[in-house]
Design brief:
With 244 residues, the protein is an all-alpha fold. The protein is 79% helix and 2% strand. It is globular. 35% of the residues are buried.
């Protein structure tokens, strides 16, 4: 998932957007032996994303009941879980993005995946299983579609980075204001974020193809795409539940 596309200027006066900066950084390879083929790069990235999703599914299936029982006896545990998720998620993302070692990046990836799995274990069981199944199917379809479009039209999606970043920041601020001031949390914001993160999947996939084809870059790119997919799933789950 890209952030706000700030600009920087090179020595020759050319402006680089945030995604161009990251492309330049990740395109630098200290050892040419680290480079793998395009096919292996996408395989590692896809397997890493799949690993995160499967781990989350397992955690939802087997941790939900114990977590609900623990919260029933100690409600304050919810805040420990939430704060722990935020701290570990941010730390994991930073570790993964800043490391050139794929094993360290994978550790950072797990620092995001596992705490988020705990959050999902508390969130998903609150919904009807039929709705959850629909949300999973729809998320899978949209994800594959957007990655296909990102591969077919990379320039189009890469040009969206700044717009998506601005839209995301405005959307987050507007939703928080709406919830805490007006008490509204309807499908409007869910729909906006579902659209934004659908486009982010295409954007992050297109961006991944511009990076140097290393295992570390594959893991880093997987983190972005994984987070896009999870947020899309949660928003679709909310939309489908409200419609029913």
């Amino acid at each position: 998932m890209g952030l706000f596309d700030s600009k920087t200027t090179t020595a020759d006066g050319r402006e680089l957007s945030r995604w161009e900066q990251r492309v330049e950084e990740r395109s630098f390879v200290k050892d040419s032996a680290d480079v793998i083929s395009d096919g292996k790069f996408n395989l590692v990235m896809g397997a890493t994303v799949a690993y995160g999703l499967v781990m989350n599914a397992i955690m939802v299936l087997y941790l939900s009941a114990p977590l609900y029982n623990a919260l029933a006896s100690m409600p304050s545990l919810y805040w420990v879980i939430l704060i722990g998720y935020i701290v570990l998620g941010i730390a994991g993302s930073l570790i993964a993005q800043r490391s050139d070692n794929p094993l360290i990046s994978f550790v950072g990836y797990n620092m995001l995946v596992l705490p988020l799995g705990v959050i999902l274990a508390l969130y998903v069981p609150a919904f009807n299983p039929a709705i959850v199944a629909k949300a999973i199917a729809l998320t899978g379809f949209i994800s594959l579609l957007m990655m296909g479009l990102g591969s077919a039209f990379p320039r189009l999606f890469l040009s969206m980075g700044r717009t998506l970043g601005i839209t995301l920041l405005i959307g987050i601020f507007a939703e928080l204001l709406s919830v805490f001031i007006f008490g509204y949390s309807g499908t409007f914001f869910d729909a906006i974020f579902a659209i934004v993160f659908s486009l982010y999947i295409g954007f992050d996939f297109a961006r991944s193809q511009a990076f140097a084809k290393t295992v570390d870059n594959a893991v880093d790119s997987a983190l972005d795409i994984y987070l896009d997919i999870i947020i899309l799933f949660m928003r679709l789950l909310s939309i489908l539940s409200k419609r029913n």
